[in-house]
Amino acid sequence: MDLLHGDLDDHLYHSGHPFSEPDARVVVGQVLAALAFMHEKHVSHRDVKLNNIMIATKPTPDAPATPWSVRLGDFGTSQYHADPALAPDGRINTHGTPNYKAPELFYQVEPEEATLLLFEAKADMWALGVTVYRMLTGEAPYGVLPEDPDPSQVRKFCREGPPKGPLDKAGVSELARGFIGVLTKKSARQRPTAGQALEHSRWVSETA
Fold first, then answer.
1. pTM of the entire structure?
2. Domains of the chain
3. What does the alpha-carbon distance between residue 159 and residue 168 come to, in Å, rounded to a whole number?
């Protein structure tokens, strides 16, 4: 069993600054690989957030070349889908942390996806998009942590996309903005799966 050293939320708080894009890419690639594996095994995480991404190793002043290695944890709300073809009708619940929740979980809209597994997997992807935004800006895209967001803030996010001010202030690249944007599409159907994001995202695959 790995010895873990806190989570990404702790790191972001104590470091006092956002993640660099090279570091964030490494971390996000590992989280995507974990989600792709889970979804392939018919398991949805249902609470992806900074607090649930645990640190195994990271660079330190004494060892700056130490690579980032993380583990996706806290499966208390995860769901195994014994029947991956099961339709989502009547089985939607509002799991997850409010500041990371996909709009379809806020408003319990008619599911766009044909199966409950895919519906929940796409909600995982939205939560990852919010996670990446927080990693690169140090700020929540809607709501003031730890307060629950006002529904109007979520609607504004869906209408206008990720707030640009914090992205501009942090100097976030266009590739990273595009990656966040595609993960947080209002339409779940337009979001990639974890496998698609891992394989086809230029931002994730870009080398420093």
1. 0.93
2. 8-205 (1.10.510.10)
3. 19
